[in-house]
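Extended Data, panel c. Modelled sequence:
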Amino acid sequence: MKEISLTGLPTATVPAVADRTPVSSQGHDFQTYLRQALGEVNDLQQQANQAIQQLIAGEQGDLQETIIALERADVAFRLMMQIRNKVLEAYQEIVRMQV
């Protein structure tokens, strides 16, 4: 089973003011990370669905592995929804700012 990992994410260090460059010029941007994370959540959902289908069909279905796959998919989906909520809250806060 594929584990959700946060490896490869940029570190939280802040470069000096003179060294600041746009994130997209470094090769990775927020959109890339978001798509990758959504892909991982989708993969976990598909693995859970496949485990359920195998359990129902009686082919190599292990109840414990199926439950574990379902819980992984559920936790990943709930995490994705919380991240979405935080991003929307941040966006709404930026929109409310007076310039």
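Residues 29-96 form one domain. This feature is highlighted in the accompanying rendering.
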